[in-house]
Design goal:
Blueprint (H helix, E strand, L loop, with lengths): L9 H22 L3 H26 L63 H4 L1 H19 L12 H6 L8 H9 L3 H7 L1 H22 L10 H18 L10
Helix pairs in contact: 1-2, 4-6, 6-7, 7-8
Length: 253
């Protein structure tokens, strides 16, 4: 996101504020067990993204192409040509004047230093701020699910697909698996939602790699090949179909 002026334009601030209000309202309605209010608040979150995109199209947001970091080689201005001297350089006494004395330094003052580069590499603490913030958010979510048991009815909204059709979606049982993982019961977590447990493990590995690379000043680049994405999607689809068949009862949360 460096160089995109993220968070410093009216479009970005408006979209983030609307989405933040929607998230806060969704959390409140989740605790109050109000499914209609929860999904209406999630619609407000999506509305924030739409409003931000519309405001950006109106010229209230800075496109990434305007920043030199994202400019292509053809968009950058070529350097101005240097003028070649037409004769031998003559300075000082050879040019008919006295050489200029060096600038005097006032006692007790520091010599001038170069201004900091606008693209200076941030410090280690700044680089680790994002991983630390994400870990704090995930830990808070797990702590809440560990304290509020999803196995007891009335604490969390019902899955819309399960409530309307009676079919289990790929995420059904995710809160129960998180509750079991938080209490150290891996067998129950796998029975509730095995892909969710695998997702927790993948997140832990990626977060660790992120922290190591951030500490060394290297960005984390995630570019999985299409074969990996198609395989993961196929396995998740097979899991969803299997748990909704008569002989897939052992996969029910």
């Amino acid at each position: 996101m460096a160089g995109s002026s993220h968070g410093h334009t009216p479009a970005a601030w408006t979209g983030v504020i609307i989405a933040f209000i929607g998230f806060c309202a969704a959390g409140a309605f989740m605790v109050m067990d109000q499914p209609v209010g929860f999904w209406a608040s999630m619609g407000v979150v999506l509305l924030g993204g739409v409003v931000g995109a519309v405001m950006r199209s109106m010229g209230l947001g800075q496109p990434k192409s305007d920043h030199p970091v994202h400019a292509t080689a053809g968009d950058r201005e070529p350097p101005a040509p240097r003028a070649e001297p037409r004769g031998p350089l003559r300075t000082g006494a050879a040019a008919g004047r006295e050489p200029e004395p060096p600038p005097r330094r006032v006692r007790g003052t520091m010599p001038p230093v170069n201004a900091p580069s606008p693209h200076a590499v941030p410090g280690r603490a700044a680089r680790l701020a994002a991983p630390a913030g994400l870990l704090a958010a995930v830990a808070a979510a797990f702590a809440y699910v560990a304290a509020v048991d999803p196995n007891e009815p009335g604490h969390y909204p019902v899955c819309p697909l399960l409530g309307l059709t009676g079919l289990y979606c790929p995420g059904c049982g995710g809160l129960r698996s998180a509750h079991a993982v938080a209490h150290g019961d891996l067998a129950v977590a796998l029975q509730a939602n095995a892909p969710a447990v695998l997702g927790y493990a993948v997140f832990a590995v990626l977060w660790t790699v992120w922290v190591i690379r951030a500490a060394r000043g290297r960005p984390l680049r995630l570019d999985p090949p299409p074969a990996v994405l198609w395989t993961a999607g196929g396995l998740l689809l097979a899991f969803t179909v299997l748990r909704n068949t008569p002989f897939g009862g052992w996969l029910h949360p």
